[in-house]
Amino acid sequence: MNDLVAKGIHAWFGKRLVLEDVNLEFAHGTVTALIGPSGCGKSTFIRTLNRMHEFVPEARFAGQVLLGGNDVYAQGEDVTKVRLRIGMVFQKPNPFPSMTIRENVLAGPKLARIKVDDKTTLVEKSLHQAGLWNEVKDRLNEPALALSGGQQQRLCIARSLAVDPKVLLMDEPCSALDPASTLRVEETIDDIKHDVTVVIVTHNMQQAGRVSDYTAFFLAELGEPGRMVEYGETKQIFSNPRDNRTERYVTGQFG
Amino acid sequence: MSDAAVQPREITTSPRPSDRVFRGIVTAGGLTSLVVLALIAIFLYVKSHAVFTTFGWHFITDANWTPDDSVKMSTGHYGIGAMLVGTLITSVMAIIFAVPVAIGLALFLTHYAPHWMRAPLTLLVDLMAAIPSVVYGLWGFFVLMPMAINWSMLINHYLGFIPIFSVPVPIFDRSPFIASLVLAVMIVPIITAIAREVYAQAPRDHIEAAYALGSTKWAAMRAVVLPHGRAGVIGGTMLGLGRALGETVAVYMVLNLVYSVNFHVLQSAGGSVASMIVNKFGEATSFEVQGLMAAGLVLFLLTLLVNFAADLVVRLASKGA
Fold it and tell me: What pLDDT was estimated at residue B138?
């Protein structure tokens, strides 16, 4: 009952339609990769799923996002509760600079005023899941900014996991990371995917192939809004795409 | 040739004439302000050193101001203790009133107000800083004071058991409390301007990170925006304190200057070094003028100290962040 369903998603910035009629289902416990060239609306799409889209001034939206059957855009829906269930990891690592490593992991429960009985266990478990525990276990009280970029990103993943989300949205989480850190993030995705539905935006086709079960290909033709061109099992998208444009993109002929 | 024999080359650059001219202009500009500052300090000291040699530390610690121009300086007595204490009391109270208002205002202007409202409202707040202080004085006297007297009575009635809120002589007008309210209104725009600047620079991605964790707007402000702006707000507060310490006319109009130290902030008796100088200058004797110069020098050094402290605090705080 924790499936995430996007129905007829449209998004505008001001009067400009940037995303048109996207329909996707994310079954619980699966990893879905969103691929496509820059400006195709995949980041905009992922930000509509946890209602981050509306922070952009002039941003508008149409459609439905159903989590366990409930529309997260429904009137009276508590948006902070929505974001607790649908977590997000951003492109640029963004740990809170004024907090220590430990405080960063605990930031979610603290900000959302959730009582944590055993903070030490939660910190250890979350950092374990993010593959960071061994590197930081002896310096949990150091400032988060003392970590390297790759470590900071894994800290952000640990921070997102600490509130026990049902869905984790990852918006190009590895684009600023070195290959070793990228590998660790991919291992993390493998570890958590049985409990958490993962939606990942990526520019890296090999990464999409390695981590995802399903892949959706987005494309914005010149002067047109972004649309979803093709969706299917990752194997099929990469080996035997139905759409000619998908084939040209995944074989590196454009984008 | 072995590597050890290699010496670093001397690298020279010869700036173009236009660079040299520009460098000369900005250097001159920078030095001018230092020279002016030094000249003011020297002028004050030359005009007033007799006061310091005659009274020493008593000039600062004594509350007694009794001019006498008969024979020599020491026949009178000059001490600014009460004025100095009064200045500090009203200024610190003004900061206590102004800082929360300024923080709230800055947060509103940068993160809460609708977009169309931000620019005009910011302009209005900035304009508050441009109102002449004598106008604040008039407003304080005729508008604020009649109301503030009632607030004073209320505070005194319910909190009078706390020593500073007790009033030995029940006169409530022209008190340090009222003066500090006027000062607070005057320094709110300064603190707001700086707080607004630093709050606006709070990184978007950190704010989004907070939201993405299910935080409310206020929690995001507390987790990201307020810590980000802390150093700037402290610096702005110190600037406001500097302005409050030196404020003259507005305080003069709403404060009853009394030459004995008074900690009863609701009572009609207070002190202000700057206002005292204005008050006495017109009919001062030659020795008394020297005393006023000395008072000016003390005030000058005090504000200088506060500004240095502000700079230091900002550096330390931004290093910690």
Answer: 96
ipTM of the complex: 0.88
pTM for this one? 0.83
**Closest residue to B214, CB basis, from A98, A112, A156:** A112
Strand order in the sheet with A16-26: A70-71, A59-67, A4-13, A16-26, A226-233, A214-220, A31-35, A197-201, A167-171, A86-89
What is the phi/psi pair of residue B282, to 5°?
-55, -40
Angstrom CA distances, B33 to B38, B48, B308, B311, stand at 9, 23, 16, 17
Q: What is the CATH number of the domain that holds A219?
A: 3.40.50.300
* DSSP 8-state symbol, A33: E
Amino acid at A80: T
Residue ranges covered by each domain of chain B: 77-320
Q: Do residue A88 and residue B212 have CB atoms under 8 angstroms apart?
A: yes
Q: How far is B151 from chain A (nearest CA, A)?
A: 38
**For A242, phi and psi rounded to 5 degrees?**
-80, -35
In chain A, the number of structural domains is: 1
pLDDT exceeds cutoff 70 at B3: no
Instruction: Please report residues of A whose CB lies closer than 8 A to that of B112.
Output: none
Q: What confidence tens digit (pLDDT) does each residue in A13-57 have?
A: 999 999 999 999 999 989 999 999 988 999 999 999 999 998 888
Of A80, A90, A110, the CB nearest to B208: A90
Residue A138 lies in a domain: no
The reply to whether A15 falls in a domain is yes
Residue A124 forms part of a structural domain: no
Q: Tell me the pLDDT band of B2, cut-offs 50, 70 and 90.
A: low
Identify the CATH class of B77-320. Answer: mainly alpha
Mean pLDDT, rounded, of chain A: 92
CA of A97: which chain B residue's CA is closest?
B321
Tell me, yes or no, whether A188 lies in a domain: yes
pLDDT tens figures, A166-212: 999 999 999 988 898 899 999 999 999 888 999 999 988 889 999 99
